[in-house]
Amino acid sequence: MRKKIVAGNWKMNLDYNEGISLFSEIVNMVRDEKKGDQIAVICAPYIHINSLAQLASGVVKIGAQNCHQNESGAYTGEISAKMVKSTGSEYVIIGHSERRQYFAESDELLAAKTVIALENNLTPLFCIGETLDERNNGSYYQVLESQLENGVFNLSAADFGKLVLAYEPVWAIGTGLTATPEQAQDIHAFIRAKVEAKYGVNVADDVTILYGGSCNPKNAAELFAQPDIDGGLIGGASLKSRDFVDIVKTFNS
To answer: Which of 144, 142, 139, 141 minimizes the C-alpha distance to 129?
Structure first.
């Protein structure tokens, strides 16, 4: 049975004290207001994650926004999956569109990061998505299939079953644009069909697929009501405790 997850991605925002303050609000509100079995996750900058893990009290899960593909070594400024795990994190975002765009992370690199995250008992939140040009020229299905094939379809069925997929329409991130529920459902169903073709119906039925593209309290309910959308990867709205928790609460009813 697939999990319902709302994962916040703070990106490069909030100094140490701001992060502690916001997270404390989120934990208290989730504790008081969440009524279902949905999982709330905050993926924070590295400076926060150990402190947040100590404040989480099992109410909110913690994740990192990236990890290196090697276990250790002379990689100044990088953080290994083992280090991430040691902070108390359970999740790590891999392949976010901003990592692909600004840091030229390839599918092959992301495949290596996914493997090492799994080896360190982290749950990868593996992101795929198309740009506006790819959406407009009609190549988005091929783009998404290639990202799956080269990024995660090298995994065994058992390992694949440990990760979470996130569909990011890159054209909707930070732009205020949002895929319609019908557009989002179409892509999520396509992704699930590709997983079924690779790993079988049981794995496809169980994999959690999140929507990540300007999801907010106003559109979350309609998006999450779609049969193949299992939650959200939340950017800007995760920086406001009320907005983030209202998205989490979408699953209460």
So the answer is: 144
